[in-house]
Design a protein that fits this description.
4 domains, 3-stranded mixed β-sheet, Helix Hairpins, single chain, HSP40/DNAj peptide-binding domain, 8 helices
Length: 360
């Protein structure tokens, strides 16, 4: 950081009047009407900050003793008003643009799990601001145009003289007649009332890629509302909401499902046909199938959002024990029990049981 005395061009033993005189001289030299540009603005900041420190006896004493700059080299404290006086209007010289960027919009789109697997084309309706078809964003009635503001003469700024520490100085502020635009709409468009845009309902075709997840947000650049006076469109954000499926679930890129297997099929084994999103497929039930066993069907899961290919279909088996038997069925089970009399109900070792690996 430059030495504050050097910035003001005074000696370290300079009096308060000498410091004030040096500051006023430099401030006038750096006035934006005399030296416009970013360089003069930065120099004025340094000069003002140096004077802020050295004009106060306590902060100057702390600075001379090698202490930290009491103002941290950042803000301008009580001299912020002085800075605003010089540069408040200079930062926005000339008329400002009437056109503004439109606001962003947020919509929610519901999808089925099947649409997630393969992707889907969606047509969504949006109530938003669109370009006025009558004036095409000019804000004026067709055949007319904006006129130069007769108050600021198109400058968008009004200059006025004010008294300050530095004497009489000129400041700039936005023109109240044209609100800083430099032009006024003498004959506004009757359809948009001089806004350059109207409210309308429009349809947007949305291609939702396969593999999206519930809660994912998609961004459609430039699909939001059109800006004031035909300004650029904002963006449209779409939140994906995936409906729960009655049969299938999701685990990453895999689909999950549970198949109930009758006891006799679990014992003897066999084949079964089930309906999937890819149509009907045949699966094998192995002889001695147990509850909790999982069959993996490769490539029948969800299309990967990032990458290629699809996940798998994971099918868990659940063996169903019959609860209602007629007398003939009960007799058959009694016969089976006699044939397998070596089988009995018993405790198993902890590491082999259902609760193996579970925390106590």
């Amino acid at each position: 950081m430059a030495d504050h005395y050097e910035v003001l061009g005074v000696e370290r033993d300079a009096s308060a009047d000498q410091i004030k005189k040096a500051y006023r001289k430099l401030a006038r030299e750096l006035h934006p009407d005399v030296n416009p540009g970013a360089d003069s603005e930065e120099r004025f900041k340094a000069v003002t900050h140096a004077y802020e420190v050295l004009s106060d006896s306590d902060s100057r004493r702390q600075y001379d003793m090698g202490g930290q700059d009491p103002f941290g080299g950042s803000g301008f404290g009580g001299f912020g008003d002085i800075f605003d006086t010089f540069f408040g209007g200079a930062a926005q010289r000339g008329p400002r643009s009437r056109a503004e960027r439109g606001q962003d919009a947020l919509l929610r789109v519901e999808m089925t799990l099947e649409e997630v697997v393969f992707g889907a084309e969606k047509s969504i309706e949006v109530d938003t601001a669109v370009l006025c078809g009558t004036c095409e964003g000019s804000c004026c009635r067709p055949g007319t145009s904006m006129t130069v503001c007769d108050v600021c003469r198109g400058a968008g700024q009004i200059q006025r003289q004010v008294r300050s520490l530095l004497g009489n100085v000129m400041t700039s502020q936005a023109c109240g007649a044209c609100r800083g635009f430099g032009q006024v709409i003498a004959d506004p468009c009757v359809d948009c009332r001089g806004q350059g845009r109207v409210r309308a309902r429009r349809s947007i075709d949305l291609a939702v890629p396969a593999g999206v997840e519930d809660g994912l947000r998609l961004q459609l650049s430039g699909q939001g509302e059109v800006g004031f006076a035909g300004g650029p469109n904002g963006d449209l954000y779409v939140d994906i909401a995936v409906e729960a499926h009655d049969v299938f679930g999701r685990a990453g890129d895999d689909l999950t499902a549970t198949v109930e297997v009758p006891l006799h099929d679990a014992v003897l084994g066999g084949f079964a046909k089930i309906q999937t999103f890819d149509g009907e497929i045949e699966i094998e039930v192995a002889s001695g199938q147990q509850t909790g066993d999982v069959l993996t069907v490769k490539g029948k899961g969800i299309t990967r959002l990032r990458g290629s290919g699809r996940g798998d279909l994971k099918i868990a088996f659940q063996v169903v024990t019959p609860t209602k038997l007629d007398s003939k069925q009960k007799e058959l089970f009694r016969s089976l029990a006699k044939l397998r009399k070596s089988d009995s109900i018993k405790l198993v070792k902890h590491h082999q049981g259902f609760f193996a690996g579970k925390r106590r």
